[in-house]
Amino acid sequence: MRFSVVAFLTVLFVLFLQFEKIELLESFAQRFNDINFQLTQKKINPDVVVVAIDEKSVNHFGRWPWDRAILGEGIAKLQDADVLAFDMVFSEPTSSDDKFSEALSGLDNTICGFFLRTNATQEMDESQLDILQNSSLDLLQTKMEEGNKFLKADYAELNVEPILDSCNLQGAFSTLSSSDKLYRFYPTAFYLHNSLYPSLGLQSLRLKFNSDVDRKKVTTLLLNQQEIPVNEHGFTRLNFYKKNDYKTISFLDLYNGDVKSAELKDKIVLFGVTEMGIGDVVPTPIGNLYGVYIHYTFLSNFLNKELIFEAQWLNLVFTAMMILLVLLYILFMKKVFSRVVAYLLSYAVLFISAKLLFVNYSIYIDMFYPLLALILSALTQEFLLFYIHEKDARFIKKAFSSYLSRELLNKLANSEKALELGGEKKKLSILFSDIRNFTTISEEMNDPQKLIHLLNRYFTPMTQAVMDNKGMLDKYIGDAVMAFFNAPVDVENHAEAACRCALDMREKLAQLNKELENDGIEPIHIGIGINTGEAVVGNMGATKRFNYTIIGDSVNLASRLESKTKEYGVDIIISSYTYELVKELFICKDLGYTPIKGKRDEVKIYQLISDKNDDIITAKVE
User: Fold this and answer.
1) Domains and CATH numbers, the chain
2) Is there a contact between 522 and 451 (Cβ–Cβ < 8 Å)?
3) Which domain of life does this protein belong to (predicted)?
4) How many CB atoms lie within 10 A of CB 238?
5) Strand (E) positions, 519-585?
6) For 451-490, how does the pLDDT look when each residue is reduced to its tens digit (9 = 90+)?
């Protein structure tokens, strides 16, 4: 339950971060996903080309800006192009404007650019605005009562009126960077004086296909029956190409006739500046590009049907899935290393899936927030698991500190077994020991304090023998000791460990009796019974008070064997079940079959005499 609550809170927190787009995280997320453009092998559309005012042209014609008559002579050779769009504005009047306007008027495919401003010292001329109004997106604007909130500008730097009037249409070439100052998105339209105007790229497509822009839904525009995905501000994410793929023609080559008009037939020609120092350079995920290539990228994306669709619902699914997987691994995988490997593999699978969707279908899935979800979820869940484990470990150490050796206690505390109410069937070796004639001893001593002191002196070495041999001290029953081996921690060769414990008890008792003799106390004699078999072991009792113990027929048999030591006059008796497991290690005497109370068949028993070897083999703990 606690893990589910933490997982749910983590989902809410990560989704909050994802929707709020907190500056630092959002910038990092954008950079994190820029690897998309290194994975694709897209080819740029051949029907878009840039005619550039480049270094070669500037070296020939001189410093920019040139006499506009030169531009007029050059663009006159572009009559076969589908569209000629200017990524520049001619806002200052010159003596050559008429010649340039005449060249523009001779074409029926021109789009002049204008630049948007948030403030300006000069008001726009009403006649200029009237001309500009012919380029507005009337159809789209009528459907904008709600949904997309296109950005608004109060001012624009427009072309001088003769040039403005000579162009077929106008388009804004303003672009905006993302929060990390990189240009990742392309605007489709802006508001200016309460009218909606298309960007240079969108206007170029309108002219090429002779189609208006409609609105399919809030996040999608429609042009020539093709969808353009947009965000709430009308921006679409750009799908960049390799820098060297952008096709550029020098204006000088066009001017000199080195480029034949047939080579530009049916193409969208972008007219821009790429000479260093005079062209606008913008930072992008693939490096710095001249501004005209931003329009180029959008146009090629549309023509190639490579516009990026942002699958917001998949973003949420991947984020939630990552947190859910962490929860499942926490609940069902016991080892930390296995969980860490599972975390990494799960994210790798999702990451590769997202990149394949991008490469093959231009579907953009933000993989930063699923990674953030993984990190936050794994840290919180692992910390909670560690806290619970430490709490359980403290409880285990407290509960078992008097019954297990420190070695077994630490192993139990670090194991994945939970101390829950209930038990399991398991093969164990059980040991019972009892003091002979204890009633007589207690009557003769006739002093409760001395009797308790004697029992404490006896129980101390007996308990130590159990712990030294990897046993679990179950309980003291009056003067009797009950112990078992192979639970709660697995002990390899537990039958051997129980037998060694019995021999150790015999040895420690001999040492104790010497001490008692010096104190004038009669020696103590004990009987020990050992049996190996299946028993139910676990926490038994009530939910608030329980005891870790064992029950079953095998336990009863061990107790009966301890009683049989009086009848046979020996100190240690083991069952045949134990004997078969230790006969190669210990010297035992066959005592034959004996009836056992509660059992229909007689049980074969053996006297445990001694170890066959001088060396003591310590039981190995698994």
Assistant:
1) 2-12+317-397 (no CATH), 43-305 (no CATH), 417-611 (3.30.70.1230)
2) no
3) Bacteria
4) 23
5) 526-541, 546-551, 572-575
6) 888 998 999 999 999 989 988 888 888 889 999 999 888 8
